[in-house]
Amino acid sequence: MVEPTSLLLGLEGLEVRAVAVAADRARVVDVVTVDPGAAKCPECRVASRSVKGHAVTRPRDIPYGDDPIQLRWNKTRYYCRNQACGRRSFTESVPEVPPRRRTTTRLRTQIGRSIGEAARSVVEVAAGAGVSWPTAHTAFVEHAKRVLKDPAPVR
Ligand SMILES: [Zn+2]
């Protein structure tokens, strides 16, 4: 069963360990990985139990009501022990925050919609979400590709 605070946060594969309110009213949320698939090498998909170390990342996320959420994700780094794999090590990832991403999938979806459907400027949406212009623009391009891929309804 998913613990209530984790359910409220709604980032699948991540479990909330602590929540604090910062001076600027941001919710500082410490999360850990509970998705067993997160320990699979992104290259060869073989699971690893060989821990290399730990790292804390701070992916940007959608706000909690009017206040921002500051995620602190305590991640594990693994060695890939698959001899046939060219990758030596990797850091955990979950679909909600794919490898090399510094924003949650739901934040990028929200940014893409704001620009693509509400016709807001990239500059304005990037500033509101606290991300860079390139990040907001990439989210918009990803959104446009998804929308344009869906075939138009036949009449
Ligand atoms: Zn591998």
Features:
5 strands, single chain, 4 helices, binds zinc ion, 2 domains, 155 residues, alpha+beta
Indicate the topology.
Elements: H1 4-9, E1 14-21, E2 27-33, E3 51-57, E4 69-79, E5 89-91, H2 105-116, H3 122-129, H4 133-149
Parallel strand pairs: 2-4
Antiparallel strand pairs: 1-2, 3-4, 4-5
The structure holds zinc ion.
What assembly state would you assign to the polypeptide chains in this entry?
single chain
- The chain-level structural class is alpha+beta
Low-confidence stretches: none
Summed up, the domain count is 2
Bound molecules: zinc ion
Profile the largest sheet. 5 strands, mixed
Write a concise synopsis of the structure shown.
With 155 residues, the chain is of the alpha+beta class.
What does this structure look like?
This protein has 4 helices and 5 strands. It is an alpha+beta fold. Strands 1, 2, 3, 4 and 5 form a 5-stranded mixed β-sheet that branches. Helix 2 packs antiparallel against helix 3 and helix 2 (105-116) crosses helix 4. The chain starts with a helix and ends in a 6-residue tail after the last helix. The model has no long low-confidence stretch (mean pLDDT 92). Residues 41, 43-44, 46, 80, 82, 85, 87 line the site of zinc ion (ZN).
